[in-house]
Design brief:
transmembrane helix; 26 helices; alpha/beta; Beta-Lactamase; membrane; 4 domains; Alpha-Beta Plaits
Length: 788
């Protein structure tokens, strides 16, 4: 088998001899033998071509059975008595023969290389050699011819022998050395070289082989180095690396992964990675590939991972979608601290830092969850919207620290009255909300409202008294979703505030009408400010003795283009709630002073005064400067302007408000206490504040001549007492709402200074009032004119 090349050379030479010598013998013997010999050889050549092609694939696959079957089919063909198939490497040598043992004749053979056309080109795999009985060519030859043929055969054999020797020396020996080098490389794994040097083709072949071996040796060294570096990188990189096969079984893990998780490599290799994930995260992990897009280069999923020592880590897994050699690379990062930080941030984001309750954002999330729970459990959900009454007084008079302490104390008391499952939240400022899930949510809500009322029985922060207005709405009775439920409980709370505060109010649909009217009025206010619908009407204040005009009170009016004059009391209430009263008040003050400047130019009006009503919200630090600038612009003396304030301003005793009032007084303006007697009236206000004028409310004026004698007597006594004490404290007294001559006469007898009401003059637009005052003096002194 190791001399296959030599055998092929021998076969080629023998074949050449047969091709050239046999025809001469046939020619000498008989012409018919030539044709028979030619047919036999042609037939054998066709069989060789066909069988060489048929043997190429089996010989490439070293399929001995198929080679044996094809050889048996070949030897069954007529003239062929023996077939030999050999491959180049010598691993396969198949012989089929039909020669009987008694046969002593000669056999002729023909060999053909077996060529396989593969992807890399044509490859010589081996040789097929066929044998057939030789014809008796020498039969009948003469002795001379036999001598001639013998000499010819001797010469041919000499040449043949010389060729074989030369072939062995110059071809076979270097090929054998090359073969041994290849075999040694294959078996031992080392790169052996061929020790052969010559200038012919064999020398160049050996040199090329040696160069190839050297190059492969270098490449193997570099490959081993690269593999070692890659392994070191995989194991020594401070990251938890692991590889999965196509079925998510662990194919490899890094040393750092093992150190971080506590597992041994033998425990995890070949194990499903999902088995190391907690059941609560397992489905999320197994579904990671279904949710990714086809174009995604990587997958990422965060799951809970179970370590060897039963520790649980939150891990972020980044996995490449590209699979090489059947495995994918993944990196696992411990994000436990990050998740805990996110949870803390979430709690902080939804928790009120002062009270520890949920804030508005957290409450809205809890409200959605509670509505879902109510749907599942077929129950009702009550939402209580709680707004504290007079909490601003604590902040203004006791400081914000005291206000914060009161809120914390309130929450502590309120939480003691909640049961598990109830949710409380601080929506902002002094607004709270409570969610109650119950079968009878209305009853539970009013019970809770009563419990909350108990919270306010004890003072806060020592002596601060508070109360709460509570609005109640129930899902799904009043609302279909979370936003609507919160809105309607808010509407119910405002309805309770308007009805007198301090209590609970269940939502009903009539409140929506009030809310719509309120929203419409808010729009009218904003439109009035932007389109200048507000006007300062003036109502004269007269000397109660001679009914001469002593001054004017500026009254706010909103003149809607379509609806006409809107009721001012409702506008003031809404404006104070929304804060727009400051802008309205400034607008009215500017217009009133401008109109008063025009009136002052009329005869007899140069010493009159202007009274302007101020909301508590208007007493800002910039108010004195604003008043001073307006009076300077219109050249009006400060003592001619009276700032009217209510008892509520003085009762709050806000230091900032006190400072503003003192600044106004130092500037020269006078202070009037409006609606005296309707609130927590106290003459101490006159002593503690720079009050110049006391205005007695019209409810007392109407009662002084009441049909019921006891009511009339008490009212007269109160009015006389207020007047006497006010005069003793150097305060002027004005009666409001005088509508009859009888009321005027009674008040005059009591010694009041001035009067104001429809008996004398109605509030009028400044232009109309100027026309009336510019006419004959009798026009505005007669009772008919005064009442017009």
């Amino acid at each position: 088998m190791s001399h296959s090349v030599e055998n092929r050379f021998f076969a080629i030479v023998c074949g050449a001899l047969l091709v050239f010598v046999a025809p001469l013998f046939v020619l000498f013997l008989f012409l018919s033998s030539e044709r028979a010999e030619k047919e036999i050889k042609d037939h054998i050549s066709v069989l060789l071509v066909a069988n060489a092609q048929a043997l190429a694939k089996p010989l490439w696959d070293l399929d001995e059975d198929s080679v044996t079957q094809i050889s048996a089919t070949t030897v069954a063909e007529g003239a062929i008595v023996k077939v030999n198939v050999r491959d180049v490497s010598g691993q396969l040598d198949v012989t089929q023969s039909t020669i009987p043992r008694s046969y002593k004749g000669l056999l002729e053979s023909i060999a053909r290389p077996i060529i396989y056309n593969g992807v890399d080109g044509a490859k010589n795999l081996g040789t097929i050699t066929v044998y057939y009985p030789a014809l008796g060519l020498f039969a009948g030859l003469k002795n001379e011819e036999i001598v001639f043929i013998s000499i010819f055969i001797f010469a041919v054999l000499t040449v043949f022998g010389a060729a074989l020797i030369g072939n062995r020396i110059f071809i076979i020996q270097p090929l054998m050395r090359l073969t041994h080098a290849v075999e040694a490389t294959r078996r031992l794994g080392s790169r052996h070289h061929v020790d052969w040097q010559s200038n012919d083709e064999m020398g160049r072949l050996a040199s090329s082989f040696n160069d190839m071996q050297s190059k492969l040796e270098r490449e193997e060294t570099e490959l081993k180095l690269a593999h070692r570096r890659a392994t070191d990188t995989y194991n020594l990189t401070p990251a938890m690396l692991f590889s999965l096969d196509r079925d998510d079984f662990i194919a490899a893990v890094s040393d750092y992964w093992l150190a971080a998780t506590g597992y041994a490599r033998s425990e995890v290799l070949g194990r499903k990675f999902a088995s190391l994930v907690l059941p609560e995260s397992r489905e999320k992990y197994t579904d990671r590939k279904r949710s990714r897009s086809d174009s995604a280069a990587r997958l990422d999923v965060t799951v809970k991972f179970l370590c060897r020592d039963d520790r649980i880590m939150d891990v972020l897994i980044l996995e490449t979608t590209a699979i090489q050699d059947g495995v994918s690379l993944s990196v696992m990062t411990d994000v436990t601290d990050l998740k805990q930080s996110e949870d803390r941030n979430l709690r902080q984001a939804i928790t009120d830092h002062l009270t520890g309750l949920l804030n508005r954002q957290g409450f809205e999330t809890a409200l959605d969850a509670k509505i879902n729970e109510a749907d599942l459990r077929k129950r009702e959900l009550a939402c209580l919207f709680v707004d504290l009454d007079r909490f601003k007084w604590i902040n203004d008079n006791m400081g914000h620290a005291a206000g914060d302490a009161a809120l914390r104390e309130l929450v502590s008391r309120m939480q003691a009255r909640l049961v598990p499952g109830d949710i409380a939240a601080r929506l902002g400022g002094d607004e709270f909300a409570i969610l109650l899930l119950a079968e009878d949510a209305e009853k539970r809500a009013f019970d809770m409202a009563a419990r909350i009322a108990e919270v306010f029985e004890m003072p806060f922060g020592g002596d601060a008294r508070l109360s709460a207005s509570i609005g109640i709405a129930i899902y799904p009775r009043h609302a279909a979703n979370a936003a609507e439920l919160l809105l309607k409980s808010d509407i119910a709370m405002y309805a309770k505030k308007r009805d007198g505060k301090n209590g609970a109010q269940m939502f009903d649909n009539s409140m929506l009408d009030d809310s719509r009217r309120r929203a419409e009025l808010e729009n009218h206010i904003e439109s009035g400010l932007s389109d200048d619908w507000f006007e300062a009407y003036l109502q004269p204040i007269v000397n109660i003795d001679d009914r001469s005009i002593a001054g004017f009170e500026a009254l706010m009016r909103l003149h809607h283009p379509q609806k006409g004059i809107l009721p001012p009391a409702r506008i003031i209430d809404v404006a104070e709630e929304t804060g727009s009263i400051v802008r309205i008040g400034n607008r009215i003050m500017e217009k009133a002073i401008s109109h008063f400047a025009r009136l002052s130019r009329l005869d007899g009006m140069e010493n009159t005064y202007l009274a302007i009503n101020f909301s508590p919200l208007q007493f800002e630090s910039g108010l004195p400067m604003r008043i001073a600038a307006l009076l300077s612009r219109h050249d009006i003396r400060p003592e001619r302007v009276v700032v009217e304030i209510t008892e509520a301003v003085l009762m709050d005793d806000n230091p900032e408000t006190r400072t503003v009032i003192n600044e106004i007084c130092r500037f020269g303006c006078r202070i009037a206490l409006d609606d005296f007697g309707t609130g927590y009236s106290s003459l101490s206000y006159i002593n503690r504040f720079p009050v110049d004028i006391i205005k007695i409310d019209q409810s007392f004026v109407r009662a002084i001549n009441d049909i019921a004698s006891d009511v009339s007597a008490k009212s007269r006594m109160l009015v006389e007492s207020i007047t006497t004490l006010s005069h003793k404290m150097n305060c002027t007294v004005i009666a409001e709402g005088i509508e009859t001559e009888e009321e005027c006469a009674t008040l005059r007898a009591m010694g009041l200074d001035y009067g104001q009401g429809y008996l004398f003059h109605r509030p009028q637009h400044p232009n109309d009032l100027m026309k009336a005052l510019a006419g004959p003096r009798a026009d505005y002194l007669t009772p008919v004119a005064q009442a017009s």
